[in-house]
Every structure is written in C-alpha cells, then in structure tokens.
Amino acid sequence: MGCSVRELLLRFDSRELTEWMIFHDMEPWGAEPADLRAGIVASTIANVNRDHKKRSQPYKPEDFMPRRTPAESEEQTPADHLRIIELYNAALGGEDLRKK
C-alpha cells in the first residue's frame, strides 16, 4: 500500500525525493511504460504476420494499448457517475441515506 504525502515527506528529504523524480524521468515505471512495452511486442508480432494486401499500413504500439481516456462515444453520463459512486459506497460499507 502506498503512503500519504505527509508520510513520504517524513521518510525522504527533498534531495532524495528529487533524485527519485529524476530517476523516474530517465527510467519511467508503472502501468503506462509497461503498456507501451507490451504494445511494441504485440505490434511487432502483428506486423510480422500482417497480410500486406489486406492491411498496407503497419500496426503501431498504440493500437494495442488501453485507452486512458474514454472516447467521445463512451462519455459517461451523470447517471453513470451516480452508479459509480453507489458502487464505491457499497464496497466501502457505506450507508445510502437516500433510502431512509
């Protein structure tokens, strides 16, 4: 589990935190770089096996990466937002006060 900003600042001084930030800029980690690496592998395999007559343009790594933002056609409505909040509330053991 991660820690709060306050806990982080108690554990690291500004110099060490700056070093970690520079390191992350040089060698990023996390979901996005991992998705890019997987997309590179997937696009390479797809391009090696691609039928050039049916698909003249090569695949790009981005074609195999999850989208981080919803497409316009998948935009959430206020009702979608309410349902997400209801699910979080139920998952965290909250009480729906509207039902009283």
Strand/helix succession = HHHH
**DSSP E strands, number:** 0
Poorly predicted spans: none
> What is the number of helices?
4
**What is the SS-derived class?**
mainly alpha
Biggest β-sheet strands, sense, barrel: none
Helix content: 40-55%
Euclidean distance between termini CA atoms: 35 Å
Mean pLDDT: 85
Overall, the morphology is flat
Radius of gyration from the alpha-carbon trace, in angstroms: 22 Å
Report the portion of residues in β strands: under 5%
Topology:
Blueprint: H1 5-11, H2 14-26, H3 31-48, H4 78-91
Summarize the structure.
The chain has 100 residues and is mainly α. The chain has 4 helices and no strands. The chain is 52% helix and 0% strand.
What descriptors fit this protein?
100 residues, mainly alpha, 4 helices
Would you write up a description of this structure?
By secondary structure, the chain is mainly α. It has a domain at 1-67. The protein is built from 4 helices and no strands. The two termini are 35 Å apart.
